[in-house]
Write a structure and sequence with these properties.
Blueprint: H1 2-122
Length: 123
């Protein structure tokens, strides 16, 4: 009977060990699933971060291109304004010369009319 009791006790201990082993196996499997899920989430986040960095780099390149275009437009605008200033100065000079020529023409016309009048009186 002692042998039978010891055998039953050993079997009960073995069953407890098997139950503990099964519980630990389940815990390990659950931990493994959680780690895999976290790893997948980490990879997804890393992929998303890399995509964000690529978008940021593309935006930087686009911004640099827009800056170059703005600088070119500013340069062209400056050149056009300078050309407009020169043309305006040339037009003002031409207008001044025309006014001078008109004044001289009027003075000459008056002088000719005065001479004609004097000639007519002298005849």
């Amino acid at each position: 009977e002692t042998l039978s009791a010891e055998l039953k006790a050993a079997e009960a201990g073995g069953a407890q060990l098997e139950a503990a082993l099964a519980a630990q196996t389940r815990n390990i499997e659950e931990t493994d699933r959680e780690l895999r899920a976290e790893t997948a989430e980490g990879q997804a986040l890393a992929s998303e971060a890399a995509a964000g960095e690529r978008r940021e780099e593309a935006l930087r390149a686009e911004l640099a291109q827009e800056r170059r275009r703005a600088q070119e437009a500013s340069s062209v605008t400056s050149e056009l304004l300078e050309k407009k200033r020169r043309v305006s100065a040339e037009a003002e000079e031409a207008l001044r010369r025309c006014e001078d020529a008109l004044g001289e023409s009027e003075a000459t016309s008056k002088a000719v009319m005065l001479r004609d009048t004097q000639l007519a009186r002298s005849e």
